[in-house]
Amino acid sequence: MIVQAGLFAPKVAPPPPQDPFYNRVTELDYFKAKFSGEVGFVTVLVGPRNCGKSRLLEELLRQYEQQNIGPLFLKIDARFTPVHSPDEVSKALVSKLDTVKIERIKNSIGRNRFISLLTSLKIKVKLSSSLPFFKSDLEAELAKELREDEGKLEPTINKFDKILEALQPLPRKPVIVIDEANDLMDWKEPDPLQPELKQLLAFLIGISKQKRQAHVILATSDYFLANWLTQVGMTEDKFRVEVLGDLTEEEAEKFVYGDGVEGGWRGIVNDSFKTKEDLANAKDQWSEIYQRCGGNIGLLKQCVAEARDLKGDWGSALQAVVTGPLGAVDRGFKPSVYIQKGGEDPLWTKGQWRMVLECITTSPQHAVLVSEIEEELGEGGEDILLSMVKYNLLALRPPSTLARDLRQEAYENDGVIETVVTLPLPAHVWAAKAVIKRMKAKEGKS
C-alpha cells in the first residue's frame, strides 16, 4: 500500500474571537480542493468523537455556498434526520433539496437546461406568453415533483439521477454528505424479499466512482462503519477512508489558552461571555488536562466548562471528564453484560481485553499495529478485534494525510504502512492506565 506522507504543516489563520471554528484551515483547504477536482471514490470520513468532524462539514457547507464553489451541497445530519430505512432516506433527500437549493441548481445550469431537466422528469412546463412563469414557479414545480414520491426510495433516487445528470457538464460537481452515517448500520428493510439498502449503496457508488457526478462523504465516529460497508455490498475498491484526528498538543494548548496574537484566537478559558476569574489558575493545569483530554476538542471544552461551573475546582472537573471512560473500560471486562449488537454476541474474554489495554497503554503513541494485536489475541484474532471495534471499545485508525495527532512511525511495520488500533478517546487511555494500575496493586496485595 502506498500512503502519502504526513500532511504538510497546518496553516495558521486565526478566525475571529467569536467564531467557534478552530484551526482546521488545512483540512478545509484539502476538501475544497477535493471538491474542485475530479470525482472518485466515496469518502468515509472517520475520527474520534467530538474531534470537530461535524463542525468541519458545516463550515464546508457554509463556504461552498457563500463562495459559490459549486451547484449543490446536500448535507443530511442523521442526528436530526433519520436514515434507518428506505422511506427515511427518501424523505431526507427530498427535505434537504429545498427551493433555495433548487434555485441554485437553476442558476448554475441556466433556465433553458433547467426546463429540459423538468421535461425529463415529465413535468409539464407552460411557456406561452399569456401564462409566464414567475421566478419561483420553476423551482416550485421541481420541489412539488420530488414530494410526489417522498418516502419511496427508488423513485426518489431516479429523480436525483436526472438532477445529477443535468449538473454533470459543470466543472464543479455537487457534494452529498451523510453525517453520522453509522446510523445506516441500523437499517430496517420493510420487505426482506425486496432489499433496498443495496440499491442505496449502488446509487452512492454510481454517482461517485462510476459516473463521477457527485462527491459523496459518509462521516462517522464509528470505526466499524467501513467494515460494515464491505459486508453489505460496498467493496473496498469503491471507497477510501480518511481520518480527521484530534489536535496536536501544541494546537490543543492554543485552543485552551489562546494563541497570543492580537485579534486572534482568545482561548476557551478566556471566553469573554464568561467569568474568567474562576479560571485564573488554568495555565497550571495543562499537564493534567492534556493527560485526560489529549487534543480532543469535545473533551477540552467539557473540561473547561466543568471547571467554570465548579468555580475553578479543577480536581472535580478533571474527574468528570474521565468518569464515563472509566465505566467503559471497566465494562470491557464484562462482555456478558453487553446487549447483542448486529446479531452477534461479544467475542472477547476479559483476559483478552486486559491484554489489549496493556498493549495500547504501553505503546509510545498509544497506537498498536492491527497485525500485532491480532497475533497477540491468538486464534480468531481478527474476529475478536473487530468485535471490540463493533462494540465501540476500540478504534481502527488507517493511515490518513488529514490526521496529525499520530506520527507516521505509528503506522510503519518494516517499511509497510498498516492500520493501527487505538482506544476511542484520550480519556479512555487515561482510564485504562488507571484501571490497570488498580488491578496490579490489588494483585500485589494478594
* Averaged pLDDT: 88
Count structural domains.
Answer: 3
Q: Count of DSSP helices?
A: 17
CATH homologous superfamily annotation of the largest domain: P-loop containing nucleotide triphosphate hydrolases
- Portion of residues in beta strands equals 5-15%
User: From the 3D coordinates, which CATH architecture of the largest domain would you assign?
Assistant: 3-Layer(aba) Sandwich
Topology as a string of helices (H) and strands (E): HEHEHHHHHEHEHEHHHHHEHHEEEEH
Structural class: alpha/beta
CATH fold label of the largest domain: Rossmann fold
3D shape: globular
Task: Kindly report how far apart the N and C termini lie.
Answer: 49 Å
Quick take:
The strands form three sheets. A five-stranded parallel β-sheet has the order 2-3-4-1-5, sandwiched between helices. Strands 6-10-7 form a three-stranded antiparallel β-sheet. The protein has a two-stranded antiparallel ribbon with strand order 8-9. It has helices at 25-36, 53-66, 86-96, 99-109, 111-120, 137-148, 153-167, 197-210, 225-232, 249-257, 286-293, 297-309, 314-331, 350-362, 370-377, 381-390, 426-445; strands spanning 42-46, 73-77, 175-179, 215-220, 239-243, 368-369, 395-397, 412-413, 416-417, 420-422.
Descriptive overview:
The protein is an alpha/beta fold and 446 residues long. It folds into three domains: 219 residues, Rossmann fold, CATH 3.40.50; 81 residues, no CATH class; 112 residues, Orthogonal Bundle (Arc Repressor Mutant, subunit A). The chain has 17 helices and ten strands. Strands 2-3-4-1-5 form a five-stranded parallel β-sheet, with helices on both faces. A three-stranded antiparallel β-sheet has the order 6-10-7. Strand 8 and strand 9 form a beta hairpin. Helix 11 packs across helix 12 and helix 13 packs across helix 17. It is globular. The N terminus is likely disordered.
